[in-house]
Amino acid sequence: MTSEFREFHVEADGFRIRYMAAGxxxxxLHLHGAGGSAITPAHHLLAQHCRVIAFEMxxxxxxxxxxxxxxxxxxxxxxxQAATELGLERFNLMxxxxxxxxxxxxxxxxxxxVTALVLDAPAAIRPAGAQPPSGTPQExxxxxxxxxxxxxxxxxxxxEVQAKNARLVARxxxxxxxxxxxxxLPTLATPTLVLFGTRDRLMPPELGRHYKTLLPNCNLVLVYxxxxxxxxxxPEAFTEVVTDFLERHEAFIISRSETLINP
Length: 263
Fold this sequence. Notes:
Number of helices: 9
Structural class: alpha/beta
Strand order of the largest sheet: 1-2-4-3-5-6-7-8-9
Largest sheet: 9 strands, mixed
């Protein structure tokens, strides 16, 4: 089974949406963070177990500027249509950081289609006044990694692409606490896995208690010695817990109590 990612496009909701895909088996759709779509070491490992479809949401990366979408609920509706256009009636869904709120909206809008939900370092609930990481690649690396010295340097984004992304995120990210979404979460019975790195400087793992309170079927896991980019820093640990959860849901290796994944 190959984990080599290839580029594709799908037309949905008036957008031409780029996505990267690899692997075979049950589909896992991925919604990226505020920095845009990137294939991490964890993506390659996950693609050895399932069909990974990593979307580049409209307006991010090299896609045309998206001035139409006004909030993450709208963005979620677009991504539901993208899944429909790909012929996916049922799928697993993973949202990273900024994309976790979009994933929760999608899960609420299409609960009958999402088999299981993974929230990776979610920024659906943020500390008061939190801001997206910004600065030079080196400054961003110090924010998102527990050990930036161990991670290859991040390539610098084209300044125009970076500015375009920033405008879109500023419009879509909404308040630190989305009251409308949080009112829906207690009705979301989808099996959900929430992952935080123990050394996340952007989204403190203590935020996990909110997801445990609001989501009726929530499993909270803390990944030891990882920062915000868990799938890059601890890809093996990340993949082990995610794949076991997607395969077995409530029977997976982690209990529903808060759990720490060590090396």
